[in-house]
């Protein structure tokens, strides 16, 4: 009895002594709660640094955006291939995610070895090896005939700008293949796979193993928003608020951040807690000075740390009676699995003896106890450090959510966590102590990170399919050079038809003579009234022209024309116009003044003289009754008479294109073309009289109002009209008419965009598939909004704000698509304008028998003026299609009122001369 007690006493004493001895030796490795809280605070600061745009470049914890934006929602499905490279084992897998809602995942996998000569050899050979393994797997599983999407779990730090790309920042752990750093590993793998002609895979996603782990666990537990690996290496990811991620545009929702916490301390932030053993280990590693936090924690290093410590203790005579073995001197001889075995609850001591003996040592009982305790201190420190960093992440999550208590789940994986007997318990306990206000569930990822990677791939695959559908729609608006050339050619034909007596009536481009026969010469003078009707605004103007100095002063007032007047009776419309004139005269203090008036009327009119114009038909938004077929000058005169308050001398009726050409021609005599890209679309130009068969005389020139908006009304450009153009046409005031105008001008571009958005939404590609009331509203996309959305200076967020102002509740992804749609539609419009303009300048060049033509085009209209890219694309297209013409586009600053007044001045002078004769 006594002997037993004595033995027990002896053993306890022995244990205490050994533990004390080791504790003393490893004093620096035992971290107090205060130190852990301090490390936690340091890591919080590191995360902040990594997330900031300006601080990220120098941050050691890189906080890499992963472009994984949401945890699985159960709607994922499909069949995927997966690679899992970078942990202790390399695997190829096939993952079958079953029908929506059922949450059933089936996996088949195969492990392949990763010999050192492959992972530390040539980069291209590494990826060729990976591709070979994939091909082998596909062959054995009978998948060669299938085209499958692939998700790559790649457990190294990669900078991503999208899901399917990753620039390797540096190798970590055991890998060190040459020529891969700073390149896109997805591209490397894709190239290697391409060499296998018999397999066809599409790499859709690159995910870090932490991300895969988080997603795997989140598939079963939607609270999971953190993923931690404590394996060969160590790392964590978590869901961060987009508004805190400076490096990615957009503020909405969350994105998973791969912290790459293994590099914590690489800037010296942990020097006070690193020990001489850590330094020695680092010096002997593949990446000295790097991954310093990882080297205190993860599986690749724990055993080695223990070995270094044991060797030091032996050297100091504290172990093995001062004896060392050659194995103890050899790097890598103690592995993490040994540490785990030595710390086993019951067999631990026996395991220790066996392991030490295998190392060629002769351990005493005391030695075994001491060594076991070394293991405990090393692995406990690892758990403590992980806990501190994880506590920092949890605190960040809690603060982001502005919660007093956070309830969350952390997905866990990695051999250390899985095989070390005490590790999980210790880690959990310390975390709970450090963040008492977080209720944390630790969930082990049973199936590795692949299931999660498949979820990410499933989402990516859905996005890719959707993208293809969107691209298909946008492609309808992309015109080839040949198509544009064809448009140019057909337009040219229509010009000729319109000018010839025999074909004129059949021509869709009416080529209307305007009776404006010359450009202003600077001798014009006088005071004139002008009306400007048919664009966005209705204006009344007073224009004072002083001769000689080419100076013009203008006063104007904008009046509204209510919809019910635009689409009421003709009488009402003209009475309203006269009312506005009266108001204006009143306002200018000119009541009763008898002034000559020029009437800019931006609709197709058949003229027989400068002051006669029969409206052929309304276009754009006008539809007043009893006007078509009538002389609008007469209608205006009658309305003035009806009012019986003042008399005006209506001298000229002028199309806005003509007014614009004149306005610009006053400054630049080379201006012989007028172009409007506004509510409507039209062009006029100076034509040789001899080519105008509808008007007598062969001398000189006359301006022709082409009314090219009607181009295509005979179906000649139906090959490039889309279903959306047809929809817009059907919903317009003049179905079947003005087809070219409806593909090009401000009044319709927004409508085309709206039709496309409705269609995309119907197919679930936008606005979460919900067609809102606003989207059903005709005319919501005015030219100004289109122009704003397309501005390069606008961040995505501002685009979103514009859409929200329009009542369209869009996500960031939606906003990108809307912007693309606007771009495709407006680009086509500018190109079509270019084709039309190319047709006229080429005609003028040929008619004059010139090798090269230099010409100025006066341009006006809100589309041209406000749109950020329209004029550039127009100019580029003309250059391509009419390379021998040097075309200068000149913006009309003063509107067409000035030009109309100039025309009136000339007409008045001619009238006077006629009278005097
Ligand atoms: C596996 C995952 O379960 O764990 C891998 O599937 C991951 O993606 C690995 O890299 C990490 O642990 P270890 O110990 O293998 O590095
Ligand atoms: C104005 C002209 O500047 O532009 C009008 O004065 C013309 O005559 C108009 O009709 C065309 O642009 P929008 O965009 O107003 O139709
Ligand atoms: C290393 C890698 C990291 C990975 C971790 C766990 O730290 O850099 O990307 O997540 O190991 O495998
Ligand atoms: C419409 C009109 C045309 C006008 C153009 C620009 O196409 O028919 O006359 O020039 O719009 O306003």
Automatic annotation (TrEMBL):
It is a peripheral membrane protein. InterPro entries: ATPase_NBD, Hexokinase, Hexokinase_BS, Hexokinase_C, Hexokinase_N. Keywords: Allosteric enzyme, ATP-binding, Cytoplasm, Glycolysis, Kinase, Membrane, Mitochondrion, Mitochondrion outer membrane, Nucleotide-binding, Repeat, Transferase. Residues 22-219, 470-666 form the Hexokinase N-terminal domain. GO terms for cellular component: cytosol; mitochondrial outer membrane; photoreceptor inner segment. Residues 226-459, 672-906 form the Hexokinase C-terminal domain. Its EC number is 2.7.1.1. Its main location: cytoplasm. One of its GO terms (molecular function) is D-glucose binding. SUPFAM superfamilies: Actin-like ATPase domain. It catalyses: D-glucose + ATP = D-glucose 6-phosphate + ADP + H(+); D-fructose + ATP = D-fructose 6-phosphate + ADP + H(+); a D-hexose + ATP = a D-hexose 6-phosphate + ADP + H(+). PROSITE patterns: HEXOKINASE_1, HEXOKINASE_2. The keyword Kinase applies. GO terms for biological process: glucose metabolic process; glycolytic process; intracellular glucose homeostasis. It is found in: Cytoplasm, Cytosol; Mitochondrion outer membrane. Pathway: Carbohydrate metabolism; hexose metabolism; Carbohydrate degradation; glycolysis; D-glyceraldehyde 3-phosphate and glycerone phosphate from D-glucose: step 1/4. It holds the Pfam family Hexokinase_2. Transmembrane segments: none annotated. It comes from the Eukaryota. It is an enzyme of class 2 (transferase). CDD domains: ASKHA_NBD_HKDC1_meta_rpt1, ASKHA_NBD_HKDC1_meta_rpt2. Belongs to the hexokinase family. PANTHER family: HEXOKINASE, HEXOKINASE HKDC1. This is hexokinase. It comes from Panthera leo.
């Amino acid at each position: 009895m006594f002997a037993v007690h004595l033995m027990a006493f002896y053993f306890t004493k022995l244990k205490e002594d050994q533990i004390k001895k080791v504790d003393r030796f490893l004093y620096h490795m035992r971290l107090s709660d205060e130190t852990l809280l301090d490390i936690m605070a340091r890591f919080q600061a590191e995360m902040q640094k990594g997330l900031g745009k300006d601080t990220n470049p120098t941050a050691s914890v890189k906080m890499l955006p992963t472009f994984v934006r949401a945890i699985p929602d159960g709607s994922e499905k499909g069949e995927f291939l997966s690679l899992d490279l970078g942990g202790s084992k390399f695997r190829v897998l096939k993952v079958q995610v079953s029908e929506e809602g059922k949450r059933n995942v089936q996996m088949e996998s195969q492990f392949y070895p990763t010999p050192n000569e492959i992972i530390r050899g040539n980069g291209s050979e590494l990826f060729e090896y990976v591709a070979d393994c994939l091909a082998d797997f596909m062959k054995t599983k009978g998948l060669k005939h299938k085209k499958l999407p692939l998700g790559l779990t790649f457990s190294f730090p990669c900078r991503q700008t999208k899901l399917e790309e990753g620039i390797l920042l540096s190798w970590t752990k055991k890998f060190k293949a040459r020529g891969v750093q700073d390149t896109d590993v997805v591209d490397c793998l894709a190239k290697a796979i391409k060499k296998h002609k018999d397999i066809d895979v599409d790499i859709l996603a690159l995910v870090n193993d932490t991300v895969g782990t988080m997603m795997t666990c989140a598939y079963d537990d939607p609270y999971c928003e953190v993923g931690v690996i404590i394996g060969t290496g160590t790392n964590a990811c978590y869901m961060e608020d987009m508004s805190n991620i400076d490096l990615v545009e957009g503020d909405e929702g969350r994105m998973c951040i791969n912290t790459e916490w293994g590099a914590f301390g690489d800037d010296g932030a942990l020097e006070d807690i690193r020990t001489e053993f850590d330094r020695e280990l680092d010096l002997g590693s593949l990446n000295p000075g790097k991954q310093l936090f990882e080297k205190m924690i993860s599986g690749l290093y724990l055993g080695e740390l223990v070995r270094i410590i044991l060797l030091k203790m032996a050297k100091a005579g504290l172990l093995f009676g001062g004896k060392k073995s050659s194995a103890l001197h050899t790097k890598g001889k103690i592995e993490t699995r040994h540490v785990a075995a030595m710390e086993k609850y019951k067999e631990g001591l026996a395991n220790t003896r066996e392991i030490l003996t295998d190392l060629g040592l002769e351990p005493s009982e005391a030695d075994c106890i001491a060594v076991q305790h070394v293991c405990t201190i090393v692995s406990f420190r690892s758990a403590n450090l992980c806990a501190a960093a994880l506590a920092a992440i949890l605190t960040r999550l809690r603060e982001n959510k502005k919660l007093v208590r956070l309830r969350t789940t952390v997905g866990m994986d990695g051999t250390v966590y899985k095989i070390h007997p005490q590790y999980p318990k210790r880690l959990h306990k310390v975390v709970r102590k450090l963040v008492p206000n977080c209720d944390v569930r630790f969930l082990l990822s049973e199936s590795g990170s692949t299931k999660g990677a498949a979820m990410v791939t499933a989402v990516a695959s859905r996005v890719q399919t959707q993208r293809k559908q969107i691209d298909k729609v946008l492609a309808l608006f992309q015109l080839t050079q040949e198509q544009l050339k064809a448009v140019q050619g057909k337009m040219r034909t229509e010009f000729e038809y319109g000018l010839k007596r025999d074909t004129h009536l059949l021509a869709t481009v009416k080529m209307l003579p305007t009776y404006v026969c010359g450009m202003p010469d600077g001798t014009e003078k006088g005071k004139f009234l002008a009306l400007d009707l048919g664009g966005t605004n209705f204006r009344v103007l007073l224009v004072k022209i002083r001769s000689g100095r080419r100076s013009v002063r203008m006063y104007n007032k904008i009046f509204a024309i209510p919809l019910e007047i635009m689409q009421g009776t003709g009488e009402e419309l003209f009475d309203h116009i006269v009312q506005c004139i009266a108001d204006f005269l009143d306002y200018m203090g000119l009541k009763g003044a008898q002034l000559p008036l020029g009437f800019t009327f931006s609709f197709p009119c058949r003229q027989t003289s400068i002051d006669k114009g029969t409206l052929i038909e309304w276009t754009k938004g006008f539809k007043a009754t009893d006007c078509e077929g009538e002389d609008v000058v007469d209608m205006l005169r009658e309305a003035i008479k009806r009012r019986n308050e003042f008399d005006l001398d209506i001298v000229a009726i002028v199309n806005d294109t003509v007014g614009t050409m004149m306005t610009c021609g006053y400054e630049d005599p080379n201006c012989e073309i007028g172009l409007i890209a506004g509510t409507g679309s039209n062009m006029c130009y100076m034509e040789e009289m001899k080519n105008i068969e509808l008007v007598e005389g062969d001398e000189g020139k006359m301006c022709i109002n082409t009314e090219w908006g009607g181009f295509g009304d005979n179906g000649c450009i139906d090959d490039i009209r889309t279903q959306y153009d047809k929809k817009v046409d059907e919903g317009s005031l003049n179905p079947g008419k003005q087809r070219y105008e409806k593909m090009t001008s401000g009044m319709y571009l927004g409508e085309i965009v709206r039709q496309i958005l409705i269609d995309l939404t119907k197919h679930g590609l936008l606005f979460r598939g919900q067609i809102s009331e606003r989207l059903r509203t005709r005319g919501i996309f005015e030219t100004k909004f289109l122009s704003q959305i397309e501005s390069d200076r606008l961040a995505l967020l501002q685009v979103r704000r514009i859409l929200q102002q329009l009542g369209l509740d869009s996500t960031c992804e939606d906003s990108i698509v809307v912007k693309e749609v606007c771009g495709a539609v407006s680009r086509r419009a500018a190109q079509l304008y270019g084709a039309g303009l190319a047709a006229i300048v080429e005609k003028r060049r040929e008619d004059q028998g010139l090798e090269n033509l230099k010409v100025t085009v006066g341009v006006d209209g809100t589309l041209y003026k406000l749109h950020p890219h329209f004029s550039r694309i127009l100019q580029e297209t003309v250059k391509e299609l009419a390379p021998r013409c040097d075309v200068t586009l000149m913006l009309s600053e003063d509107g067409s009122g000035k030009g109309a007044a100039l025309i009136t001045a000339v007409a008045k002078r001619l009238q006077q001369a006629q009278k005097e004769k």
